[in-house]
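Tutorial, part two.
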Amino acid sequence: MRNFISLITLAALIIFMGSCKTNRINNSKGKYKGLDKTAVLKKYDATRLQFKTLQLKGKAEFTNPAKNQDIGFTYKITIAKDSLIVANVSKFGIPGAMVKIDQDSIRIRIPLEKKAIVCDFSYISSIIGFDADFGMVQNMLIGDASFLKTTELVAKSPTPFELQGSMSPYKVSWFLNGSTFKLEKMAVKDSNLGGESVVSYADFQRFSGQLVAMEMLLLATQPSPARIELKHSSVDFDKEKTNFSFRIPRSYEIQPCGKK
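Running the prediction step on this input gives:
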């Protein structure tokens, strides 16, 4: 049981960094050719998800070959745009962890062990292989790009459009679908350590007029190879009743991140 809790807590950390009828989108080759960076970014901005609250439910699988770790679990992620993320992670109906992320910190409650873990974004950064903050974690979950000031368009072919930017020691590449301009892949390379993290998005479906990636895959090569895949089963925009409650009982032991 302790091993299960450790794995599901780590998976919850990596993750953070009633809908209408859906219509599947065919991501075929686009008709756009010769667009400059300004035009591409303008079209991309029009695809960003608009919401006050967003709730995602589904199943995930976390794998770390180096440590012989492989676990599947279910999740419910609720987002208040630009301010708060609360996630519940469980397996076989057993609560594994509840996570609260705000602009400054990450708090993880582990009911079965009656303990809580408190950390800042530096710990998530050490796991996923690149610097993270609240905006980065939110955008990674919903498939939005956080472009850098140094971003340039390097591939004008619409299959897909590729943009690159750098912020030492990282080099970032974004790949946008040539028809929908939705983000399909982001790759982050560390020029100092040589590691790379790749986040990809697939199975785009339309909810309330907006395209949402129903599948997200994160591959990290440092500090050790890890893979986590999320497959949403439901997506709800701006529900009338949304629960963000999170409380750490006084009886819980509180630990900093990384403590054995």
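Helices lie at 2-15, 37-45, 121-128, 134-142. In part three we will examine how such features are distributed along the chain.
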